[in-house]
Design a protein that fits this description.
This protein is of the alpha/beta class and 349 residues long. The protein is built from twelve helices and 18 strands. It has helices spanning 42-49, 53-57, 102-105, 147-150, 153-166, 181-192, 205-213, 227-235, 250-255, 281-286, 301-309, 328-336, and strands at residues 4-12, 15-22, 30-40, 69-77, 89-92, 95-96, 116-118, 122-123, 130-134, 138-140, 173-177, 197-202, 218-221, 240-245, 260-268, 290-293, 319-324, 344-348. β11, α6 (181-192) and β12 (197-202) form a beta-alpha-beta unit. The radius of gyration is 20 Å and the shape is globular. The chain starts with a strand and ends with a strand.
Length: 349
């Protein structure tokens, strides 16, 4: 095996380099992975633009190999690795924690103050031919899931954790704000939890149509319909029992209180990029609304993989664009131009 590999590095804001770098060496408790596919999301774009919050606060720095949504194959294992073998198909958790601090000991390893985040902060990611990973952060998946589909397990895990926080039940009418990849995945997951009705809300017709094809019960098209009026009609005035906010837009967050049933639960999955939202606190208190933030995807990966293997969670349908590693700047340009045809981009290595 060559001592070098092809990799994509973001050297500084809007400066990328695709070329040969030294292939990483793996330790006793680590695995060497041949990367197959990488998902591209808004976080990758923000890293490229220099707008990602960790880079503004100094928690992360350039250069970095991005790529935190990925799938790959084990090609070598360290001497202390158990449960993984050459040829295994794997995905890995973005958050890699210390395993020893108070947060880790309580199962909140997504909040570990010593954590690194693969392809985001403190660790080079998957936009390379090979990647080294700690064995404890990897999950195997079967041949019933393609490498392409598996590259979306990470965003699916983010969505799953949000739905799980709301404890969605068959008694719930659920609203999903935002028909991006996270919203489309969350809508499917809410259905798998047995929600009485799942309503997808957005203003992009192609994404709303995709939501219906993936099994959403109804949609609200904000380009032509009034949110509150349609929500009232769909729920017979009761409004929504559970709301998943997956846009990261302050206006969408501020509109949540117009949609809540008494005692409803809300989970926020989208980051607002430093912008502040104004919330009607009196409404939240007087309606006994429960609000949650959800960071990353601790403790849910096995459940997500099982859901995909059962066929109840479809990821391939979301993939609309495929690029080679060398075409990453073209991919970012399409994202910046807000091409309406985009749902999910994949890099093929």
């Amino acid at each position: 095996m060559s001592a070098t590999m092809k990799a994509l590095r973001v050297m500084s804001p809007r400066q990328v380099n695709v070329g040969q770098v030294e292939r990483p060496q793996y330790g006793a408790d680590e695995v060497l992975i041949k990367v197959r596919h990488v998902g591209v999301c808004a976080t990758d774009l923000e890293i490229y633009q220099g707008e990602m919050v960790y880079y503004q606060t100094g928690q992360a720095s350039y250069p970095i190999i991005p790529g935190h949504e990925w799938s790959g194959e084990v090609v070598a294992t360290g001497s202390e690795v158990k449960g993984l073998a050459v040829g295994d198909r794997v995905v890995g958790e973005t958050t890699i924690s210390c395993g020893r601090c108070q947060q880790c000991m309580h199962g909140q390893y997504n909040l570990c103050p010593h954590r690194v985040e693969n392809g985001v902060m403190g660790k080079d990611g998957a936009c390379a031919e090979y990647m080294v990973y700690p064995a404890h952060a990897l999950h195997k998946f079967s041949a019933g899931i393609s490498y392409e589909e598996a590259a979306l397990i990470e965003p699916a895990a983010v969505a799953y954790r949000g739905v799980d926080k709301l404890k969605v039940t068959p008694a719930d009418t659920v609203a999903v704000l935002g028909a991006g990849p996270i919203g489309l995945l969350a809508a499917q997951i809410a259905q798998s939890f047995g929600a009485k009705k799942v309503v997808l809300i957005d203003m992009r017709k192609n994404r709303l149509e995709m939501g219906l094809s993936l099994g959403c019960d109804a949609v609200i098209d904000l380009s032509t319909e009034d949110l509150v009026e349609r929500a009232n009609e769909m729920t017979n005035g009761a409004m929504f029992d559970a709301i998943i906010e997956a846009t990261g837009h302050t206006k969408a967050v501020e509109n949540i209180t117009q949609m809540t049933a008494p005692g409803s639960r809300v989970v926020l999955l989208g980051l607002c990029g430093g912008r502040k939202a104004c919330l009607d606190v009196d409404h939240i208190v007087t309606h006994d609304v429960e609000m949650y933030g959800s960071l990353a995807s601790p403790g849910v990966w096995a459940d997500v993989i099982q859901l995909m293997e059962s066929g109840k969670l479809r990821t391939k349908d979301l993939i609309t664009h495929r690029f080679a590693l060398s075409e990453i700047e073209s991919a970012f340009k399409i994202m910046e131009d807000k091409d309406p045809s985009i749902v999910k981009m994949i890099l093929e290595l």
